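Progress report, Aim 2. The chain analyzed during this reporting quarter is listed below.
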Amino acid sequence: MQLQNNRYTLGGVDMLSLIDEFGAPLYVYDAGTIQRQYTRLDTAFQGIQHQIKYACKALTNINVLKVIKDCGAGLDTVSVNELKIGIQAGFQASDIFFTPNNTSFEEVKEAIALGAQLNLDNMPMLEKLGKEFGGSIPVCIRINPHIMAGGNEKISTGHINSKFGISITQLDELEHLVKAHKLDVSGLHMHTGSEIVDTDIFLKGAQILLEAGRRFPSIRFFDFGGGFKVPYQAGDKQTNVEELGEKLSALCHSEMKVRGTSFYACFEPGKYLVSESGFLLTKVNVLKKTPATTFAGIDSGLNHLLRPMFYKAHHDITNVSNPSGERRTYSVAGYICETDNFAWEREGIAEIREGDILAFHNAGAYGIMMASNYNSRPRPAEVLIKNGKAHLIRRRETLEDLLATQIELA
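Predicted structure tokens for the chain:
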């Protein structure tokens, strides 16, 4: 988002004109930002043969998926419906990982039938795969490296108490199972968590994964997951992907010498590709002064952007209606019948007036995807800015949508 002639623009499109055309609240994504993020990551890992699989749980709008496909990425999916959406967006099933957790074996078999690459994270499921298919279906196996990483306990997925992956302490048991069923282990996978800043932690996990891979000679790739951090506010640290790419490439080439065979690397960025591309535009309904603060009450809430309440996440807030306004302190709150404060006593917001449009930054990942109809509120529309033009890619929900799946008894 840029400020030009006292007007905020995104991808060359005036932000306020989007509200005039599509209404508020409104999710807006910039295709150029997604392409920039992909190019940076792809370039960072040029020292090793690699594939980037977008973790599409972050944002699955089919038009966004097409932008990412055009960049050259594959997909990482966690449900059969994500897999089917990816195929509809034009991805080849063979370029899509299916990485389920606690799903049924029936869903796994559906993914096999669709042609996806399997990435399984528990031994009971691997045993079922072996009994029914033997070694005819290549499978990547998710390992839990017992590393604590990530910005919040809810997004730390590689520690000893995590539900994800097979513990490194169970490698002997895993190796026995693989041999007993003659499984074709195509790769090993780890994902230690989101918002990893310390590259040494990432490399520690990578070393554990590479050493575990020596037990499985059929391996063709190692999947190092994602979790690359993006900045959410001024001064925020972010993952130095260039440094990580250089060090990880060297580590992989060293391991190839040990194994005597080559392999390629996979990465699964989600938030890294789409977070900074997205903004949630909201309208100020009311200004309410209390003895403690001044609330700016908006036409959105935790039903549209859950992250501040669920993860205590910070999202910068810009008053796009009053760029030159005096900087003041506000508490920005939603319209849901819960305490859904997006920001408490946030300093430096340009003076807010009733009817102003506020933009929440870094709303491209886990924004609309975690939205709900709580309080019987409709979910917002979505707009994609591509090549300097705004395109409606999801219409706003209506009351009819809220009632569509209900069956009224006579």
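The mean pLDDT is 94. The first strand starts at residue 2 and ends at 4. These observations will guide the mutagenesis work planned for the next reporting period.
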